[in-house]
Amino acid sequence: MSDPLLRVEELHTRFDTDRGPVHAVDGASFSVDRGEIVGLLGESGSGKSVTARSICRLESPARIVDGTITFDGTELTTADESTLRRIRGNELSMVFQDPTETLNPVFPIGEQISEAVRIHETNGQQRLADFLGVPLLRDRSAWAEARERAVELLAAMDVPNPESGSAAFPHEFSGGMRQRAVLATALASEPELLIADEPTTALDTTTQADILRRLRTLRDERDIGVLLISHDIGVIAQTCDRVVVLYGGQVMEAGPVEEVLTAPEHPYTRTLLACSVRSNDPGERARSIDGNPPNPIGGHEKCPFVDRCRHATPACHDGPVPTIERNPDHRLACVEAPLPPNHADTPGQKRSTPDSVNGTTQRERTASESRSRTPVIEAKNVSKEFSGERSFLDRLRTDEPSAEAVRDASLSVDTGETVGLVGESGCGKSTLAKLLTGQLTPSQGQVRLDGTRVGEIGDRSYSQRRQIGVVFQHVRESFDPRWPIGRSLSEALDDPGTVSTAEADLDDVDGLLESVDLSPQIADRYPRELSGGQLQRVALARALAHDPDVIVLDEPVSGLDVATQATILDLLGDVQRRFGVGYVFISHDLDVVRYLADRVAVMYAGEIVERGPAKELFEQPSHPYTDALLRAIPSDVPGDDRPTPLRGDPPDPTDRPTGCSFHPRCPAATTECAERQPDFETIDSSRVRCFHAPDATGESNDDGSSPERTGSR
């Protein structure tokens, strides 16, 4: 048997802090073969990203204190800088989590890919003129070839119009397009190993399915190894050949994805899989892991999961945990292994009150009990157009079309109801939310609060403004990093009509924190000191400051691991039950929407193409676009049908197609679809904007089942 492309053995990576050494990676061992995709799975803070950076020798300010990293026969932990430069970016490439931080905003996409190509061709030895970008002294023929190669790479990633795309800047690309550009840059050097750190976290299901398909294609066509880091169990299940489960910087379980994800043997793996929202039914309390991850300061002299494990025994506290090989490919670190199958921590089983996972009690849905006759908030036939920033003379010279971000959209939310808003990136979800909150003014149509028409936020009364709370998409960016949490909450509590004492403000802040299950001690900490889950709770507390009637939540759980996600979803349900607040829940994670929402609206190219009860919409979608979105959801079960990418891209908002906006991508499109704009039709309890919705996705058989759906897969 040949040696693996990458072998990591007993890796220890630490951060030196004033409070002691942080053991971010604490003895991890695994390997990646050529032509194989290996997944790194675990909660936030488990050491996944630090492990990846250590492999690339980009671990600073941390340091590797022990262990070996062998890449294609070269020991990287002792390699000199020139060797690392030769390997890094040539034989080994990394795709980082946020493409906006990877791409330089001041250079065109093609220029950045061309630079990667040239660095690879010159083996990292750039000429000074090339490095400085001196036009007359550059090797023009070589750069012309590099630009051609950049266009080829963009075309290979299915970037539309790759030549014009090559001249575009990062901000002109959508999230999915930026991720494709980053992949193209990483592949410019034709690497043997690609490390992808959460490459699909912020992407909608169709774009995610497309990126994952490309990773599998790269593995098959180029025989490269891929290390895929993700907290999404479905992504790992449908993409990887093997999976490594990390917790507390240690490998808990590793083996073939079919074995680990369908028959997990480590208590942590079982509990983590049970936290997936796909394992929970709507109305059922989400399963989350009690307790907190271990303190990484000082390392672990015992099993890192022992304090949260329902199977723990005194032996689990004594010394290092042995590694047990179930077979040559499947190993786990557990004193009590092998554990018998147990319904209490087996994924997909409903449990009552196990020690390690919160019980599943039926959520009391306020929405169905206290729905008001007049919606709390309502958008009626709203549209929003944006014009490019042009000078007065430019506006006189040209008749440049405006971009229609939202088109004739109607949406309402009742007391205690959750309305999910879903669709691909750039479909207008966030713009519609800003119209509801008053951050933008509709070009046409109207927004009503309790039946009263309202304008933008500056024109709304104080009482109207306090009726709506907002949790922003990039929650960390929504807090002032210089202010402690208490000050941010105190500012949100300010009432221009009253004068309060410092003691009263402190009590109010403490009350807000306690309402989202946080300790009042959090008030003295800064945003950078809080985890993603904690900061999401603080954002919800801030939105609750004035007892709103409705809260707009823009991607509130994207980027969170399944365990943290479960606690936030439980919290949202608790808050809704306690305060009767309505939610507008924007998300690209359709499983989360299925779990939480009472009704769902599906947006495409600025239009709502289908809306109706969540259960009905997810079980029997009527619009072909909704059907395509659902087909793109990855299953947690390896071997299930892989997610199907939706071919093509949404239309340019400045150049919409005639007729139905979806017809260029629709597998059921007819001539009528290309010529005429469809109106809403009622199908059961749903409203659908499609000429032949039942025929597009298949009507129910006599027994209530759905026939096999037609269309491209």
Q: How many strand units? A: 24
Mean pLDDT: 84
CATH superfamily heading of the largest domain: P-loop containing nucleotide triphosphate hydrolases
Q: Strand order, main sheet: write it out.
A: 6-7-8-3-9-10-12-11
Query: Can you tell me the CATH topology of the largest domain?
Result: Rossmann fold
Q: Helix segment count?
A: 25
Q: What's the CATH class label of the largest domain?
A: Alpha Beta
The largest sheet, given as strand count, sense and whether it forms a barrel, is: 8 strands, mixed
Question: Ends: how far apart?
Answer: 37 Å
Structural class: alpha/beta
Radius of gyration of CA atoms, rounded to a whole number: 26 Å
Beta-strand percentage? 15-25%
State the domain count. 4
Q: How helix-rich are the residues, as a percent range?
A: 25-40%
Tell me, briefly, the overall form. globular
The residue ranges in which pLDDT falls below 50 over 5 or more consecutive positions are 346-372, 696-713
CATH architectural category of the largest domain: 3-Layer(aba) Sandwich
